[in-house]
Amino acid sequence: MKIAVLIKQVPGSESALPLNDKQTWVDESSVTYVMNPPDNFALEEALLIQEKVDDVEVVVVSMGPARVQKVIREGLAKGADRGIHLEENEEVETDPLSIAKKFSDVLKEENFDLIFSGLQSDDTGMGQTGVLIGEILGMSTATLAIETKLEKDQIKIKRELESGWFQWVTLPFPASISIQSGLNTPRYPSLKGIMGAKKKEIKSVLQELNTDQSQNIDNIFVPQTSKQTEIIETDADAAVDRIIEILKSEIKVF
């Protein structure tokens, strides 16, 4: 069995996020990048399956510039067998469909039985890549997986729905599954794993920027905040009237 885990490198939650001169993205030279947290759970789920089932290969797949190899190595240090790097030397893709098509071109050559992805990325938060890849490659798909069970040539998925409801679905192989955060406890790389990752293969595939995207980010900005304090110094009845007026006309909570 072969399992692909899609991993994205995103700005860390505590990193500074200065904008570039064109205000179309962040200034990457000032950003600290990490593995996308939801993808960490997808990787751990694949490694848990590998520990339970014989003859399972886990492959981490990531797209981006040269810096992306850092998170690929992290995945290898945790236990993945090899990596695939879809290199981008120009602007980073932001259109989910274009991204899914590029992943699909590489993934279909490998004939994976399972493709795991985190539910969404911490930067753009589209949450579409896993589903789109499944559709492009003609795979069965499922999202919001909070539990997985292998059953011969199929996988059983417990999905998290709204209002506390859950749904069990059974998917034949091959399948593309988006993993919900929190279904397991991601491991840390061991010293042995870190040393061993240096010897594991990372296959590089050069990607060209798609100039005919259906979705682009034209502009980003930092929200402007302001703080105003009003001290209400009057009798209780007048204070209540003023508070209600503020809630209605200024804060607009009702």
Fold and architecture overview:
- With 254 residues, the chain is an alpha/beta fold.
- It has one domain: HUPs (Rossmann fold), CATH 3.40.50.620.
- Helix content is 28%, strand content 27%.
- The protein has 6 helices and 11 strands.
- The strands form 2 sheets. It has a 9-stranded mixed beta sheet, sandwiched between helices. Strands 2-3 form a two-stranded antiparallel ribbon.
- A hairpin with a 2-residue loop joins strand 7 (140-151) and strand 8 (154-160).
- Helix 2 packs across helix 5 (191-197) and helix 3 (96-110) packs across helix 4 (129-136).
Could you say what the CATH topology is called? Rossmann fold
Largest sheet geometry:
9 strands, mixed
| Envelope shape | globular
User: What is the structural class?
Assistant: alpha/beta
Classified by CATH, the class is Alpha Beta
Ends: how far apart? 55 Å
Gyration radius, rounded: 22 Å
Order of helices and strands: EEEHEHEHEHEEEEHEH
Contiguous helical run count: 6
Helix share of residues? 25-40%
Write out key terms for the chains shown.
globular; single chain; Rossmann fold; 254 residues; 11 strands; 9-stranded mixed β-sheet; two-stranded antiparallel sheet; alpha/beta
